[in-house]
Amino acid sequence: MLLLVYYDYSRLSELESLAGSISVTRESPGIVSELESAEIRVLVENPSGRDVPLAEVVDHLPRSLAPVGRPGASMVLPRGSAAAFSYSVRPLLPGAHVMRSLEVRVYGPLGFFVTRRTVSSTTAITVLPYYSEAVMPLKSVERLWGLVIRGKATGGMFDLADLREYVPGDDYRKIVWKAFARTGRVYVREDFGEVAARVLVMLDLRAWDWTLGESPNTLASVELRALRSIVQGLARYGVPLDVAVCCGSAVKVVRGVTEDVARALADVFSYVEPYCRCELHMDAFASAPLYMGRSTSDYAAALLITNPISLAAESPARFFELSSAFGGRLRVLVPRFDYELYVDREGLRRLYRIASDLLERAGGALEVLEESLFVRPIEGTRRWG
Predict the structure, then answer these.
(1) Residue ranges making up the domain that contains 115
(2) Among the listed ranges 121-125, 187-191, 218-222, 330-334, which one has the minimum average pLDDT value?
């Protein structure tokens, strides 16, 4: 028995070199939707000229990804061979989930000794949050149009909203010849209802947003669902959109969301790693337009998604400065949530009253979204909906 143990031990140095020669790669879908499982495929290759008697590969998962089944497998790898295994994960939170490494274990011929090696392999899965088509940033479509359409109708022969210079491809029937006769330049008219003013949608994520509530209905998850619902709702009406998200040490921006909503949403949520927190004050959003080559005056409205707890933690002076930067066009949107579990009812009313007063002084407004964005288990199944 001692000789067998010694034999296995004597192969230990060889095992270390074998472990170093094994190549491991991971494949995963780049984008999935919240509440869906994602399949992970791991490919293991032995390009060396020696047989590996027994290898085990175990994936390292962040806590935001729950494995469905074991995220690993054992295998025999003859020289020059390859093997693969698959497992599934269930994202517990929306955002970008990053898997950074796997562990390779190589066992001796008799299994008494093992050597371990960590293999770096970065794979990211962007999880788009659940969204509701019914959620709108204002209480009705009529109010929405009143916000985003420039009120420049002048009546007369045409319901004229604006004039702009002609560009190739414009309808020649919309050329305003009187303007051409007066200026010598070709202008086309834009009718009322055709000119949608730009909207900036902002999301402020704080550390406590991830801990309030229980997965899959943390406050952060609800705010991310509100962001997607609002963006898709406005984009459906053709409203030009930009998005700014604070989840870290900088404000991340995505310009021209309406031009390609699917791509833009993937970009937005790839910036949000679970449990990240905004390290800046709210007035940092006032500089977001600069990052996109715009100014605050380019926006007919700026919509800030946040919560009363974050509002209470912010300095009133900084919050008022943000409101003033957008010239009275700031709308603070508060998703529906069980805030009463964390703030007493009277304190919550006081927070809303203070925030509303500050916004009104700067010409803005605060609104609580009426529709719940909670997801609940479907009775009799393991699915959520």
Answers:
(1) 2-128
(2) 187-191
Distance, CA of 110 to CA of 153 (rounded, Å): 85
CA angle centred on 123, ends 119 and 126, rounded to 5°: 160
Q: What is the CATH number of the domain that holds 88?
A: 2.60.40.10
- Is 385 part of a structural domain of the chain? no
- Same structural domain, 280 and 301: yes
Indicate if the pLDDT at residue 371 is higher than 80.
yes
All residues at 6 or more sequence positions from 179 whose CB lies less than 8 Å from its CB, including other chains:
163, 185, 187
Note the pLDDT tens digit of each residue in 135-178.
Answer: 654 444 344 444 444 433 334 444 555 677 887 777 777 888 88
The span from the first CA to the last CA of the chain, in angstroms, equals: 58
- Cα 32 from chain centre: 12
The answer to whether the CB of 264 falls within 8 A of the CB of 254 is: yes
Burial of residue 277 (number of CB atoms within 10 Å: 0-12, 13-18, 19+): middle
What would the mean pLDDT of 364-368 be, rounded to a whole number? 83
Helix orientation angle between 261-270 and 219-236, rounded to the nearest 10 degrees: 160
d(Cα 178, Cα 26) in Å, to the nearest integer? 65
Using alpha carbons, select from 193, 137, 185 the residue that is nearest to residue 366: 137
- Dmax over CA atoms of the chain, in Å, equals 105
24 and 116, same domain (yes or no): yes
At 200, is the secondary structure helix, strand, or coil?
Answer: strand
* Shared domain check, 349 and 217: yes
Report whether 365 contacts 352 (CB < 8 A): no
Amino acid identity, position 257: V
Residue with tokens 């203070």: 354
Side chain identity, residue 223 = E
